[in-house]
Write a structure and sequence with these properties.
This protein is about 40% helix and about 15% strand. The chain has a single domain (about 1-200), classed as 3-Layer(aba) Sandwich (Rossmann fold), CATH 3.40.50.1240. The N and C termini lie far apart (about 40 Å). The protein is an alpha/beta fold and about 200 residues long. It is built from 7 helices and 8 strands. The strands form 2 sheets. The chain has a 6-stranded mixed sheet with strand order 3-2-4-1-5-6, sandwiched between helices. A two-stranded antiparallel ribbon has the order 7-8. β2 (about 50), α3 (about 55-70) and β3 (about 70-75) form a beta-alpha-beta unit. α2 (about 30-35) runs parallel beside α3. InterPro entries: His_Pase_superF_clade-1 (IPR013078), His_PPase_superfam (IPR029033), PG/BPGM_mutase_AS (IPR001345), PGM_Phosphatase (IPR050275). This is Histidine phosphatase family protein. It comes from Agromyces salentinus.
């Protein structure tokens, strides 16, 4: 079992700016979110907390590990947020005007993000011999990873709130998505399929 958790809030999250690889730290709200979320993982099931190397993810992981008395494990490059190139720091509200196709100069290809995230899931599981692990990462990385595993287009996935968790379980040599952003996968899949159908009609 693996839980992919989005980090806590940063000032750029609050301001609606695209972060990507820019290493913006948690703000006080983000730290409080991490402390509040820890209770959801109490009870002894989880064995460790790992994270992306970026500061906002690492601090979130440290807060969770301290609150749960769990080991704070390694950082994984595979969990880094997508590199958005020239769009980093730009207000999200401006993106559609400046880059209607989201073809930001210097952007890491979406398909590479999905492959990288899936490789990270496999490596974490191998490093912890299949034990249940909390992995703190980033919204777009999580979205592309899950979409790649379920065979959907990441554009149709919902946006993830700070500290929301998505659960994966290894089953029959594959990873099965059980929840997305704290909601059952079967429930969210209906919304994903509806968005895909709407896009197909618009095309």
């Amino acid at each position: 079992m693996l839980a992919l958790i989005r980090h806590g809030q940063t000032d750029w999250n609050f301001a609606g700016r695209l972060q990507g690889r820019t290493d913006i730290p948690l703000n006080d709200v983000g730290r409080a979110q991490a402390r509040a979320a820890a209770s959801a993982y109490a009870g002894g099931m989880w064995q460790a907390v790992v994270s992306s190397p970026l500061g906002r993810a690492r601090e979130t992981a440290r807060i969770l590990a301290d609150a749960l008395a769990l080991p704070l494990g390694a950082t994984y490059e595979e969990l880094l947020e997508q590199d958005f190139g020239a769009a980093e720091g730009v207000a999200v509200s401006e993106l559609a005007t400046r880059w209607p196709d989201r073809d930001f100069p210097g952007k890491e290809p979406d398909e590479e993000v999905a492959r990288r995230g899936a490789a990270g899931v496999v490596r974490i599981s191998a490093d912890y011999e299949g034990a249940p692990v909390l992995a703190v990462a980033h919204g777009t990385l999580i979205r592309h990873t899950l979409a790649g595993l379920t065979g959907h287009d990441a554009r149709h996935y919902p946006r993830f709130d700070n500290l929301s968790a998505s659960h994966l379980r290894a089953q029959d040599a594959a990873w099965v998505v059980q929840s997305i952003g704290g909601r059952p996968f079967d429930e969210v899949r209906l919304e994903i399929d509806a968005r895909a159908a709407e896009d197909a009609r618009a095309a």
